[in-house]
Amino acid sequence: MFSATLGELAGVAGRRSVRGVLLPSLVFCCLALLVIATGRGSAHDALHAWRQGSWESKVLVVAGFVLALVCVATALGNAQTALIRLAEGYWSPPLRRTIGRLGRGHHRRLVRRADDASTHDRYPPRTRPDDIMPTRIGNALKAAELYPRLRYGIDAALVWPRLHPLLPDTFLTVLGAARTGLTALLASAFLSVVLAVGGAAYLWAAHAPTPLFLLCLWGGGLAAWACYRGALLRAVVYGQHLRVAFDLYRGHLLEAVGRPVGDGGDERAHWERLCLFWHRGILPHHVATPDRPAPPNPDPTPAQALPGFCPSISHLTAAAFAAAGLAGALTGAG
């Protein structure tokens, strides 16, 4: 949800754009060029061919590299919101019903077994199992999204676009930096997967040496895992900043709409009426229908209680990379 309403924060020019878009794209293009060069021979042969080439060919290579860098950076900059939603677990129905169902079941079991102190900023409350997302990043951001509703009765999807323009510049700077760190690591993870899969496929087709093939596939997969783990930490920090925004500055919005805190009414009732007005056009003087109480955590069904060993999406991804590496090494070893 926040990824759709905060998309403009990623467009801040300067160091954030360099960090979030240009640097991951530059590293990706350099490594892709290295994979292509080594796939046709050794690095020494590639360097020798570069030195012996004409200046026209060198200009074309440099121009092609710059063009590829611009294209990758542009596509990556435009896809930041899509990357966050992909990392959150907002997938198409086929994936949502298969891998997504497996991920949600895995995280529901983790929430049931863990204590509240270790899950309060990483997962939705255990009383809301239907809000569990299939990924860790999705659960961290979902917990931040549910916080204002559970604490103040605020529908974050409706209130945030109205609250965001009222935030002070200093806080927007901190919030934008947190989101830039999240998107930069997600972009690096995505490009690492593309490089690992695409580069390994190219090396396999070119009958490159098996160690080079495995280095590209498994090294890219390991880099993607490390970037994703870093993005998870950034998502938790980003979620904390979102909570702080509602804690400190929600009163600014009430004052802006002429309903300051402490004007004789309950603040939660103010927010419920305002959200109904913004969402359905119901005038604020009408009595708001209270939220339905959250259903208790249901007892696990037999299908949930008999998982034995139910791997997470991370385990399945690691197994897929390992199987692909072994299969490629056996069928296309150079």
Keywords, separated by commas or semicolons:
334 residues, mainly alpha
Task: Describe the protein's architecture and organization.
The protein is built from 15 helices and no strands. With 334 residues, it is mainly α. α2 packs across α4 and α9 runs parallel beside α12 (210-256). Mean pLDDT is 79; it is low at 2-13 and 297-308.
Tell me the layout of helices and strands.
Layout: H1 2-5, H2 15-39, H3 43-52, H4 55-78, H5 80-88, H6 93-97, H7 99-113, H8 116-119, H9 136-152, H10 156-163, H11 169-205, H12 210-256, H13 267-280, H14 302-305, H15 313-331
Helix pairs in contact: 2-4, 2-11, 5-11, 9-12, 11-12, 12-15
| Global outline | elongated
Profile the largest sheet. none
Q: Give the end-to-end Cα distance, rounded to a whole number of Å.
A: 48 Å
| Strand proportion | under 5%
The beta-strand count equals 0
Structural class: mainly alpha
